[in-house]
Amino acid sequence: MKRTASEERVASSGNGFVYVVVGLAAMAIGIFMLLSRPSPMMGGLFGLCMLLGAWCLAGQYMLQPNQAVLLTLFGSYRGTDRSEGLRWANPFYSRRRLSLRARNLNMPTLKVNDKRGNPVEIAAVVVWRVENTAQAVFDVEDYESYVQVQAESAIRSIASLYAYDHGEEHEVTLRGGGDEVSHELAKELGVRLAKAGVVVDEARLTHLAYAPEIAPAMLRRQQAEAVIAARKTIVLGAVSMVEMALNELERKDVVKLDEERKAAMVSNLLVVLCGTEEAAPVINTGTLYS
After folding, report:
1. Is residue 288 part of a domain?
2. Is the separation of the CB atoms in 127 and 104 below 8 Å?
3. Domain assignment of residue 2, yes or no
4. Domain boundary among 187, 210, 233
5. What is the number of structural domains in the chain?
6. Residue that finishes a domain, picked among 98, 114, 141
7. Distance of CA 181 to CAs 37, 46, 154, 171, 258, Å?
8. 29 vs 25, 48, 241, CA distance in Å?
9. 156-179: pLDDT as tens digits
């Protein structure tokens, strides 16, 4: 049989200040009657007034903004009070305070495998708060521990769905798709923590790096890819400059070049433009064909 989630309901509570006044007034009346006219009957009334006053004062409790009190009577859930200020409820009620404020969970660095099986180190911060107090108390053993365990599990699950930084074309990666990864992490946490009556306001990665055992190799790969990308840019620029030089020479009729001389000129210009060292001029005293 599938167990249903606990439902939060509003507790029946009263204004604490009213009960303070009633309780003090009852005690004052009882003392006044006993002192003004001592008798067994007045003694009984005095006792009743004291009991009434104690009843009114014993049920007092105070709530700050974004706090709640969960009330139970002999194990039976009677409701949750979210009203601010001095409140009163049946003194026999058991009270459990819960904070409804947003909390930060700063997860420690975890070592997980990304989509391609590479070990990476990842950490995240999760902003969460209790929304359903009945679920938080009755449906899980310890909702704070539950949040921590499920957050770790969700981070591991999300990390395995994305590559670290080298995915296929237009593929979201852990390093490049920060907003989308954070959104999916918050969504995954929301589903997992709904059982505990907890909502996730935000979840973001705070640390992301390759694991130490593969970090040097990945660094060399990144450096090689950077060099290749730079060379590609240099070659594209050099080809454009060579093309522009040939077009200008031909347009201004500076010199007539046949195909062989053009090829030699292109080769020399590409060497000069793409070389890593400064080019040294060479004086040619002969001709291209001798």
Report:
1. no
2. yes
3. no
4. 210
5. 3
6. 98
7. 79, 69, 12, 12, 58
8. 6, 11, 105
9. 999 888 888 765 567 788 887 778
Residue 66, phi-psi category: left (phi > 0), alpha (psi -120 to 50), beta (remainder): left
Distance CA 154, CA 148 (A): 10
d(CA 268, CA 238): 11
Structure tokens at 137: 């108390």
- Structural domain contains residue 177: yes
86 and 67 assigned to the same domain: yes
Averaged pLDDT for residues 32-61: 86
Tokens at 153, concatenated: 């599990």
189 contact partners, CB below 8 Å, separation of at least 6: 126, 128, 150, 151, 154, 200, 203
pLDDT at 220: 65
Helix axes 215-251, 259-274, angle to 10 degrees: 140
- pLDDT band at 224; cut points 50, 70, 90: low
